[in-house]
Amino acid sequence: MSRITLKNIRKSYDRGPTVLHGVSMDIAPGEFIVIVGPSGCGKSTLLRLIAGLETCREGDIILDGKRSNDIAPQDRDIAMIFQNYALYPHMTVRENIAFGLELRGMPKKARNARAEEVARTLQLEPYLDRKPAALSGGQRQRVAMGRAIARETSTFLMDEPLSNLDNALRVVMRREIKELHKTLKATIIYVTHDQTEALSLADRIAVMKDGHLQQFDTPEAIYDRPANRFVASFIGAPEMNFLEAAELKSAGVPSDLTIGLRSDALTLVGAKPAGTALPASVTLSEMTGSDVVLHCETPAGRVTLTAHRSALPANLDDCWIACDMKAAHFFDSETGARREFAVQEG
Question: Fewer C-beta within 10 Å: the chain N or C terminus?
Fold first, then answer.
């Protein structure tokens, strides 16, 4: 297993904007780290820097205690898995998995034995003699993972490996990747724009925006205590609702704060409740199964929440949203930074 330390990593291209602005992380051996953020935030660039496929303008990349900025990619003991499977169409599954070992000069018998061992781990044994065209998308992705695993490396870098799969298959593959991590006990750095993948897979999450590291913490800490308004809005579904303090006068919140309320802090009721509440009318509902996502118009603007179908008020045109202010988050209205504030209702 590898420890990876990034110190003040800065990256820019010739005559172009700066892509990464002083990113620092310390990744422990065996950790599953997910780097998440919108398109263009620098997450894939950071992964390529760790792999040695690009060079940084400033900062240090330290692999197992050794500064590795100038070490060639093939000498970094790192395997990469990309969103495009990059399998050789004329080769069987066995040959695809074993190809990297062949390049390293491993004898045919030994590399085939290694390929079959990896195939058992990934439940690919029945497909060893098939070619990629005869496989499903999930099976092809597992072959790509198998080719990386066959190297017996201690570090895996995964760049949006599930983005080409349909939703049902993504759920299955997330579970397989998590189980694979437990089996291999390797260090994994995984890039995605999908916050659901981040929350379900990671030991820790690095949230990126415009080349800046916004927060680096456990999924629970990032969900429960987002460092700023951007993190709060990016992590969690439905997205957090933001209301200016003046729009919730009864809460007694200073006017320079923005109030953040997640869906689970809001309840749709038929009559005005005690405590902080907003009159509302439901303009759109989206069924997700036993629950529905409700988009409501209120004097404070549009508010989104989730409710159980059996608990909906009879009249959705004239209802109230009860706000649990003990579960509220507070952010500086100017800077967006998290602020601590204790609400005294009533």
Answer: C
